[in-house]
Design brief:
With 125 residues, this protein is of the alpha/beta class. The chain has one domain. Helices cover 32% and strands 18% of the residues. It contains four helices and five strands, in the order αβαβββααβ. The strands form two sheets. It has a three-stranded parallel sheet with strand order 1-4-5, covered by helices on one side. Strands 2-3 form a two-stranded antiparallel ribbon. β2 (51-52) and β3 form a beta hairpin. The longest helix is centred in the first third of the chain and has 17 residues, at 2-18. The protein is globular. This is VWA domain-containing protein. InterPro entries: vWFA_dom_sf (IPR036465). It comes from Streptomyces haneummycinicus.
């Protein structure tokens, strides 16, 4: 996971230099939550520091697990999340107001509290 975040950082450095006035980049990290190459918190923070004139990169994490737990969508705290989910939560951005009511949330029945994280632990059955 660390290497993937570092590589993405390099790609975004070039991209934001070429598109300084655009909406900030959005990075979606799909993961089982286990980093096999170190603590991903540092590389995630470095990635989130890259931005455009309109703000920093938004890092969204989707934790996919074979655990048959109740799925959690857009938690506003890390309470009740498994350890790996809590780590991803701490690395995720709070959803900005421009993403407050995307159309898929009402279709999927997902409700988000104000200040919800972009970390989305999910259960793959």
């Amino acid at each position: 996971m660390c290497e993937a975040l570092r590589y993405t950082h390099k790609v975004l450095d070039r991209w934001v230099a070429e598109h300084p006035g655009s909406f900030p980049p959005i990075v979606l990290n799909l993961t089982d939550g286990e980093s096999t190459d170190g603590d991903p918190a540092g590389p995630a923070q470095q990635l989130r520091s890259v931005g455009t004139e309109n703000g920093p990169t938004l890092l969204f994490n989707l934790h996919i697990s074979s655990d048959v737990a109740t799925p959690t969508h857009y938690p506003s705290t890390d309470a009740g999340l498994p350890q790996m989910g809590a780590k991803l939560f701490s690395m995720s951005d709070v959803l900005p107001p421009t993403c407050a009511t995307p159309p898929w949330t009402s279709v999927c029945g997902w409700n988000r509290a104000r200040g919800a994280s972009s970390s989305t632990p999910a259960c793959a059955r």
